[in-house]
Design brief:
The complex is a heterodimer.
Chain A lengths: L3 E10 L3 H12 L4 E4 L16 E2 L11 H11 L6 H20 L14 E2 L9 E2 L5 H15 L3 E3 L2 E9 L2 E9 L5 E11 L20 H8 L4 E2 L4 E8 L13 H4 L3 E3 L23 H8 L14 H13 L9 E4 L10 H8 L1 H11 L8 E10 L2 E2 L13 E3 L16 H23 L7 H12 L10 H15 L6 H18 L12 H25 L22 E7 L5 E7 L5 H9 L2
Parallel strand pairs in A: 1-2, 1-9, 2-6, 9-16
Antiparallel strand pairs in A: 3-5, 4-5, 7-8, 8-9, 10-15, 10-17, 11-14, 12-13, 13-14, 17-18
Helix pairs in contact in A: 1-4, 1-11, 2-3, 3-11, 5-15, 9-10, 13-14, 13-15, 14-15
Chain B lengths: L2 E10 L2 E10 L6 H11 L19 E4 L2 E4 L14 E4 L6 E3 L2 E2 L2 H8 L20 H11 L6 H5 L1 H4 L9 H12 L9 H6 L11 H5 L6 H17 L2 H10 L1
Parallel strand pairs in B: 1-5
Antiparallel strand pairs in B: 1-2, 3-4, 3-5, 6-7
Classes of the chains: A alpha+beta, B alpha+beta.
Chain lengths: 602, 246
């Protein structure tokens, strides 16, 4: 087997917000950094983030502080978050946002010229630094341009098929470049996984083709643990019509700007059920909710801005009980604000330009004059690689994870806007600590046999005698996960899902590829299947074991929260015989100071 | 079910030919959906780039019925379906395979443009103050999703292949975003004139017409940059002053 070898001190896999931020920081740490991305640079899923970056800058409401942000994040995550990560995140996010401005990002401004912040679900005060509804693009372009000018070594359109370990420590990665299909070995003292999410395990998703859980699965196979995999965020507002746009995200910013949810009877159904922990903070009439969105500090937020898990379930309920919109969703209306403000049309176009554009072009809907039809879409996974809060190192020495593929900060449910800040805060930390690790540790020797075996596995789909179409297998997997381990879960259905996954594993072992290795998407799809099957199994097993409902995990057969699950995280790891081993990890006791912060903010 | 035929470029490097694929279509479909359908059922090795499928990442650039467009934002109901829809790669870049081209030149060009260099912070806490009105123009340029359709359609690159002398509309927009950034203090005018070939642009406006983000590339970015270059280097009064001061 022939392959090129590259050597780095720190190797970053993934060039979305977390990977870029990590690479910039590692390079500032004076070590040699390589950055690998599955697509072209700047195309990562981070560009899809619309609403903003949550950070307690207190530019719009001076009552905001890291403490309020911390308490909001813990409440949103239903207290199974890693409290240390939630604390670091809330404390450090403002500096990370200001840093972006120093690197050239151009955020929307307040009237006194500072960074403007907007309302978002679950955030007590206006907190999201934003650029219209294209904040993710602004962030990724800023990081990309800053990183490129720092001299980062970027390997585009490269897919990792294995994280290599030696004596239980990370030693590099092995994979192929898409253009020619050639293998490359990357040796490094530290590896940072920043590969994003796994939305492609579901049929209806806001994720691109890249979101196949690569980092989750690579870490798992390298011996790391995954936690919280049962917690999947179904974003309440995805497009549902026409069929070809199903799943595309409709930003929460629409609701932040005053958009309301109605069922087919015209009722604001979100007022019908307000969860206890949020009752004190939520408006109980339409007038108060409207005043909140217009910046009235005495008003409480409208129920449309409750957490995503709750809003998604309410929409699901309306549809199930026959009060949905014609295409099986509900109505999201921003056009109604013209009864309240002048020049509403221009205001909407300025605040939500890409939403206006998206609906106009893809659905023939003018959102300034008519409501949108929306429904839940698989958006984000709270679960991921178990990491140390301060350093982001996994349980495998030298293997780090940051961003969506790491777990902890979000607990059972992520607040909108906390993802972009997570990428910045923990991307930086991962980069910093990986550089330190690389300075203190030599590159490990690479096991040639492991490389040969990874290469053989990667080429297996080209062998003759195979008959399965990889696209068909992926489609069937997405369909099973959507039906059986989706937004509302039942024991029997999840057991059925595990059975289906076993069959799909056997089919995936027979996946056939036509043509040759050069830029062959059939081959790429066949290789992604292994990752999708691993993460899907982890989701189903953890969801089966958590016999309660919490955040992004809702069990129709156990609809309430249960005390026994309030203090644990579900964890999986690969056992010696290759099967998935499930364990319960107790959550460490929260220090008194942090407990007090939460009490004060109740 | 309604069907449509797509005449798709299948190529390896510089050689290739169009091949026809007929596939089912459903309401609301875009060209990228059709390509995916063909890929999943008829040609599993059909190479194309895509990511967000919502016009935000700029990956799926192609030439559809001869026009540079994003496949994910081109609705089938806007195309005549009584004849085959041609889908081919961007022709201004070296072909790799099928609809995929080598756009690496663009990434190299960006490295040559002077990076953002902020002025000293305005406030003691290290932050700046900017009015919304002063950032509106720059925000327009920063909407760019780097789909490179403007590069594809630019005569200087497409017909004259002056990639060594001219950076193309994308990077003139990039330079304009930096030059007009209220905080930026670097000078790029010499570079634009001498290294980046701003003079080669003869403002035909083709780039503006194909921009999926509706950035008014020619009027708002290139012409003001050209004016700045002219003011700096060709203004007779300044020229005279330079003669005396040297």
């Amino acid at each position: 087997m022939t392959y090129e070898t590259h050597e780095y001190d720190v190797l970053v896999v993934g060039a979305g917000g977390a990977g870029l931020r990590a690479a910039i920081e590692a390079s500032a740490g004076g070590v040699k950094v390589g950055l690998i991305c599955k697509s072209l640079l700047g195309k990562a899923h981070t560009v899809m983030a619309e609403g903003g970056i949550a950070a307690a800058l207190a530019n719009v409401d001076d009552r905001d502080s890291w403490k309020v942000h911390f308490a909001d994040t813990m409440r949103g995550g239903q207290y199974v978050n890693n409290w240390r990560m939630a604390e670091l995140h809330a404390r450090e996010a403002p500096d990370r946002v200001r840093e972006l401005e120093a690197w050239g990002a151009v955020f929307d401004r307040t009237s006194d010229g500072r960074i403007l912040q907007r309302n978002f679900g679950g955030h007590r005060y206006p907190r999201l630094a934003h650029v219209g509804d294209r904040t993710g693009l602004e962030m990724i372009r800023t990081l990309q341009d800053h990183g490129v000018h720092r001299g980062l070594d970027v390997h585009m359109e490269f897919t990792v098929v294995a994280v290599l370990t030696t004596d239980g420590r990370a030693a590099g990665v092995f994979g192929y470049e898409r253009e020619r299909g050639r293998f490359k070995l990357f040796r490094s003292a530290a590896v940072i996984l920043a590969t994003g999410g796994l939305g492609r395990a579901y049929r209806i998703t806001s994720n691109s083709w890249e979101g196949t859980g690569d980092g989750h699965s690579l870490a798992y196979r390298a011996g790391a643990q995954l936690i919280d995999m049962e917690f999947i965020q179904f974003h309440p507002t995805g497009m549902i019509w026409p069929p070809s746009v199903q799943g595309i995200l409709v930003t929460e910013g629409v609701r932040g700007e005053g958009g309301v949810l109605r069922n087919k009877e015209g009722r604001r159904f979100m007022f019908d059920e307000i969860p206890e922990p949020y009752r004190n903070q939520t408006a109980d009439n339409e007038e108060e909710g409207w005043r909140y969105t217009q910046g009235d500090k005495t008003a409480r937020r409208p129920p449309e801005l409750l957490t995503r898990d709750h809003v998604a379930r309410c929409i699901n309920r309306e549809v199930k009980e026959g009060r949905g919109s014609p295409h099986g969703g509900v109505f999201l209306d921003i056009s109604w604000i013209k009864t309240r403000i002048q020049n509403a049309e221009d205001h909407i176009k300025r605040k939500l330009p890409s939403m206006y554009h998206q609906f106009k072009q893809l659905a023939d809907i003018d959102i300034t004059s008519e409501p949108m039809e929306v429904g839940p879409t698989t958006h984000y996974v709270m679960g991921g690689v178990l990491v140390d809060a301060d350093t982001q190192m996994s349980t495998v020495p030298g293997l780090f994870a940051a961003g969506e593929c790491a777990a902890g900060i979000n607990g059972a449910n992520r607040l909108g806007g906390n993802s972009l800040s997570d990428l910045l805060v923990f991307g930086k930390r991962a980069g910093e600590h990986a550089a330190i690790f690389a300075r203190e540790n030599q590159r490990g020797a690479v096991d040639g046999a492991a490389v040969e075996s990874a290469a053989r596995d990667a080429l297996a789909p080209f062998e003759s005698g195979r008959t399965e179409n990889p696209y068909a297998i992926q489609h069937d997997l997405q369909d099973a996960m959507q039906r059986l381990v989706g937004i509302v879960r039942l024991e029997d259905e999840m057991r059925e899902a595990l059975g289906v996954l076993e069959i799909l594993k056997r089919r995936a072992a027979m996946a056939a590829v036509h043509g040759h290795r050069e830029y062959n998407p059939g081959w790429h799809t066949a290789l992604d299947l292994g990752h999708l099957l691993t993460v899907s199994e982890a989701i189903a097993r953890c969801a089966l074991e958590r016999k309660e409902s919490r955040g992004g995990h809702f069990r129709e057969d156990h609809p309430e929260k249960a005390a026994e699950f309030a203090t644990i995280n579900m964890a999986v790891r690969q056992s010696a015989d290759g099967t998935m081993e499930l364990r319960r990890l107790p959550i460490p006791e929260m220090p008194a100071e942090l407990r007090q912060v939460i009490e004060e903010q109740k | 079910m309604q069907q449509a035929t797509f005449r798709v470029w299948r190529g390896e490097g510089k050689t290739g030919q169009f091949r026809d694929y007929t596939t089912d279509i459903v309401p609301g479909m875009v060209v990228l959906d059709a390509i995916h359908r063909i890929q999943a059922t008829q040609a599993t090795d059909l190479a194309c780039r895509w990511n967000c499928k919502a016009g935000k990442c700029g990956s799926c650039s192609a030439e559809i019925n001869g026009k540079p467009r994003l496949m994910c934002m081109t609705r089938l109901n806007q195309l005549p379906l009584d004849q085959p829809v041609t889908v081919e790669p961007m022709r201004a870049f070296p072909p790799i395979r099928d609809l995929v081209t080598d756009v690496s030149w663009n990434f190299e060009v960006k490295k040559k443009i002077k990076p953002f260099q902020p002025r000293r912070p305005d406030a003691p806490d290290g932050t700046w103050r900017m009015a919304q009105a002063d950032v509106d123009r720059v925000q327009e340029f920063r909407k760019c999703i780097e789909c490179f359709l403007c590069q594809d359609v630019c005569h200087v690159l497409r017909e004259h292949a002056m990639h060594e002398q001219f950076i193309g509309p994308r990077f003139l927009v990039y330079a304009a975003a930096l030059e007009m950034h209220p905080l930026d203090s670097a000078d790029r005018l010499t570079g634009l004139k001498d290294d980046h070939g701003i003079g080669y642009c003869n403002i035909t406006g083709c780039c503006t017409k194909v921009c999926p983000e509706h950035i008014t590339i020619t009027e708002n970015a290139i012409i003001p940059l050209k004016e700045r270059v002219v003011d700096q280097f060709y203004d007779p009064v300044r020229k005279l002053l330079r003669v005396f001061s040297s």
